[in-house]
Amino acid sequence: MLTYVLRRLLALPLILLAVTFLIVLVTQLIPPEQRAASYIRNLEQLARVQDIIRVNHLDGNVFEQYGMWLQQVLAGNLGLSRTSGQPVLETLLARFPATVELALYTFFPLVALGVWLGSGAAVQRGRAADTAIRVFAVLGHSVPSFVLGVWLLVLFYGALGLLTGEVRRVTGLVTVDALLSGRPDVFWDAIQHLVLPVLTLLVVSSAALVKGTRASMIEALGSDYIRTARAKGVAEGVVVGRHARRNALLTVVTLMALSISGLLQGAVLAETLYGYPGVGGWAAQAAAQGDLPGMLGFALLTATIVVVANLLADLAYALIDPRVRYT
Questions:
Q1: What would the pLDDT profile of 257-311 be if each residue is shown by its tens digit?
Q2: What is the largest CA-CA distance in the chain?
Q3: Residues in contact with 115: Cβ distance below 8 Å, sequence separation at least 6, in sequence order
Q4: Half-sphere exposure (CA, 13 Å, Cβ side) for 79?
């Protein structure tokens, strides 16, 4: 297993290089004059566009551009984000805890809701409960997260006057710090600001997990060992919970790993929509303003998280099913 883990970790730098190179390659499709626009802050700079292009080497080819950025990164500098006005690394360190907090408050309810609804739909296959859950999953898949976010803002913030959009920050993980500091008012304030982003991500992201769990549970419940267990008089709760659900966990773990990638993508929209101070909202602004160091820094972060999450999912397979071997 150690060899397998090391091989997967050694592949991480190659993935990071590929992802970041593709981003630089795509930005080369934009003319240097348009890329220089993101450096302009006043009329005086507007008259010196060619100087900006020359100083920042915007007229170089993709290999020159990428080589300069990579050399900078290897020296421990991710560059300056023009969006935040701070170094990219400082921006990531300052904003990442907020995104982690949002992801944690979403991920665990997401798994619990997805497995519970998916299992329930499989057990109640063909009945009203199964139909209702499938409709919920289809709606979750169909409604874009930004549309759902606007609906929730209109309902809770606009119509009901609840769950305001302005965030009051203390440190990174606000809810944890508030509890440690004995500040229930700050904790409650943070929870109110997390409700709508979490609800948006939960509804949209849970659809795939519900459908995947349902399909896997239906397959497991139709297996011979389940029929044998029922013929022996084993209680239905034990059949579903201990035998069928355990064998459906491989699919669930795979979907959980994929849901982390989905949460990161959803966080960009949710944080932008609700003004949440995480890396997703900053990354969206960086992309809109052509902030290349910002985009590359966000890509490094998300690619690392996705690779590690998939590695952990692969390792979990052996814990769930001892027949799984790593080669």
A1: 778 877 777 788 888 888 888 888 888 888 888 888 888 889 888 888 888 888 8
A2: 85
A3: 209, 213, 245, 252
A4: 22
